[in-house]
Amino acid sequence: MIIREKLEELEFHNLSPYATYSRNSRGRDREEEQCDIRPVFQRDRDRILHSKAFRRLKDKTQVFLAPEGDHYRTRMTHTLEVSQNARTIAKALRLNEDLVEAIALGHDLGHTPFGHAGERALNDVCPLGFVHSEQSVRTVEVLEKDGQGLNLTWEVRDGIRNHQTALMPSTLEGKIVRISDKIAYIHHDMDDAIRAGILTDQDVPTSIGEVIGFSLSQRLDHFIHDIVINSMDQNDIKMSPPVEAAMKEMRAFMFERVYQNPVAKSEEKKAEDLIRTLYEYFYKHTEKLPGELFGLLDKGTPKEQIVCDFISAMSDRYAISLYEELYIPKSWMVI
Q1: Which of 176, 192, 193, 260 sits most deeply, having the most CB atoms within 10 A of its CB?
Q2: When comparing pLDDT for 195 and 150, which is higher?
């Protein structure tokens, strides 16, 4: 028996009956030879980790735009924290950690520069609309590897597509990532807001603190324990009603005090204008798009989508640099 088959057999004997077993995957869009060492979801995790889209996350905004300091979260550190929270829950519930990690590492691959400000701008200016979860799926299906895509399994793509609040993944592993995403950003955005002097731990309403704790570490620990306790031996991933209510109250508090804070968000209007301007420029000048995108035009992909593909893939730094190159005059010099 080859190593992969042994690992698949271990999954069958050791994981929960509610887990998603690698050998039962619905497969890939394009059939390919199995790896002799790695089960399919581990292989997907590796493909995402080595992708260009994953590496670009290090220079994409999480919440604070171009913060002065080394310790504020980026889209990559957010992704890693989602992955860690999700793996902790999956291990405790005996679910498939490889699947959880692959979904977590891939869930924001299609996110725009400048965080949700960039997403709003593309959604406003593009008549097709723009949603980062759908763009993440498009990234792994179409855009990576010069148009070949990563050919991930159905389960991983389903988890990536459905990680946002209004949607629901088909696997328990996808549901873990969905809830871990919310836990991660509530936790680390609060931490960053404290670091920025916008909030203190004492600002958290007593009604929240009495349920899930008055410090960052207490709240994260409480969230994870509550999910594990209430999901154990269940065909669902859920919180207790009091903790779920406290999480929603905490999220509303963060929207009021951080996500809509005029100090924290003072530069977002500029970022939105920058994204809209780049979209309009490249819509008019498609000949200046990267060569690998022309193949999509030839296949009939709408021009609006291809411009979104180009802009959403940018890092903050590249988007600013490109805008300066196109619109900021340079000093004249004799060559």
Answers
A1: 176
A2: 150
Query: What is the Cα–Cα distance from 114 to 106, expressed in whole angstroms?
Result: 18
Rg (CA), the chain: 21
Burial of 23 from C-beta contacts in 10 A (0-12 / 13-18 / 19+): middle
Topology at the third CATH level for domain 3-327 = Hypothetical protein af1432 (1.10.3210)
Look at residue 166 in the predicted model and tell me its pLDDT.
87
Residue 278 reports pLDDT greater than 90: yes
Residue given tokens 């979904």 in the structure block: 103
The pLDDT of residue 334:
63
Count the Cβ atoms, other than its own, within 10 Å of residue 233: 9
CA distance 224 to 246: 14
Phi, psi angle pair for 63, to nearest 5°: -125, -50
Residues 6+ apart with CB under 8 A from 239: 179, 223, 226, 227, 230, 247
Cross-strand pairs, 153: 28
User: What does the alpha-carbon distance between residue 31 and residue 45 come to, in Å, rounded to a whole number?
Assistant: 18
pLDDT higher than 90, residue 21: yes
Task: Report the candidate in 113, 61, 105, 102 with the shortest Cα–Cα distance to residue 79.
Answer: 105
Distance CA 147, CA 295 (A): 8
* Helix, strand, coil % over all residues of the chain, rounded to 5: 65, 0, 35
Torsion of CA 197, 202, 203, 207, to 10 degrees: 160
Predicted local confidence at residue 3, as pLDDT? 97
pLDDT value of position 332: 63
